[in-house]
Every structure is written in structure tokens, then in C-alpha cells.
Amino acid sequence: MAVTETEQDYELPCGRGLERVWDRLEAVQNGSADAHEASCTHCRTARESLFALRAVTQELIDEPDPAPPDLFGRIMFAVRSEVRRGATLSLATPHAGAVGVSEQAVAVVLRFAADSVDGVRARRCRLRKVGVGPDGETVVHISMTIAVRVDSQGVQGLVPLVRERVTAAASARAALLVGRLDISIVDVYQDGVR
Predict the structure, then answer these.
(1) Which of 21, 19, 14, 20 is nearest to 42 (CA)?
(2) CA spacing 20 to 30 A to 3: which of 13, 52, 128, 141?
(3) Contact, 146 vs 183, CB < 8 A?
(4) Are 148 and 120 in contact (CB under 8 A)?
(5) Ranges of the chain with pLDDT below 70
(6) In 3D, which of 173, 161, 39, 188 has the Cα closest to residue 110?
(7) Quick check: pTM over 0.90?
(8) Per-residue pLDDT, 92
(9) How is residue 96 annotated by DSSP?
(10) Which helix (H) or strand (E) holds 7?
(11) 160 and 168 Cβ atoms separated by less than 8 Å
């Protein structure tokens, strides 16, 4: 099977190919134009367009890329989901004995539980193993910081609800027994503002 070249040079009305005009751009600019290039309006128009194209292309090359609009959010996401596992907790399972899970993974589950309360955003969650419960479950102390929405119905109703959901998630999702749960309100926010 023979391969044929289908791409052809674009010909100007004067008969010159656009590739040739492009190749001779520098020569013409430096005053080394042949008789045809010096007098042909078609070649001159093509050269002006090519000069404009080259100038715009150079501007794009010289202009630094603007930061993406969500750059701050992406950086914060990366910081929050840092790959260090940290310490592990030994969780009892009915089939495999004990399984090691990173404290960071459990903290994500607990923050998600706090976020499920309307008007609350979990900020930081730290947990520490303090013992073993009567049924072999790991007992932990949890320290959590949250932000509350400015127009919330009242902090008094939010904190008990966060406590209930975090305790339930620790038990149901991670088979942990909560020995102590400290919740601190460290920030307030308005809807639409992070």
C-alpha cells in the first residue's frame, strides 16, 4: 500500500505557497525580499497576518498562566487529605480479629458525621486510644473543633447534635467506644463564605 501525502501547501492567489511566505518572513523583514515579495499585495497581506499571528503567539508564551480560580480550595483539600497515615488504631472485627486503621481515616469519618449537622462545619478532629472496652472495642478520646453558621438556631442545640452524630459514627462506622468527646467552637461563618 502506497502512502500519499494529502497535506498540501496553501497557495495564495499570486501562486506562491503560504509555507514559502512563512519561511521567507525573516528575510523579507530584514530587507532581503525578492522582486515578487516586494511588490505582491497577496504576499504582503499574508506576511502581515503571519506577523500578527507570531506576535499574539509570543504574547501567550510570555504571559504567565493565571492561577486557577479554585486554587486555594485545591491547596486546602490537598493539605487536609495529606497522605501521612499517622498512628493506627486496632479495631475489633467479628471475622478477622483486629484490623489496623489509621487515626486519620477514622477522623475523616467523624468529621463527616459532624458536617452532617445543618449549620456545622468540622474543622479538626484528633483522637487518641485510651483503653479497651468490655467487649474488646477500642476506647478513644476525641477532640474536635467546629465552625457554626452565624444564623444557626443556637449553639446550645447544635453541639449536642454534633456529639450524638459523632458518637454514633464512631460506634457504627469504626467500632469505637467514645470515652470522652471534647467539642470546641472555633469559628463562625455565613452561607456562601468559607
Answers:
(1) 14
(2) 13
(3) yes
(4) yes
(5) 1-8, 66-68, 71, 74-86, 92-97, 152-154, 192-194
(6) 173
(7) no
(8) 67
(9) T
(10) none
(11) no
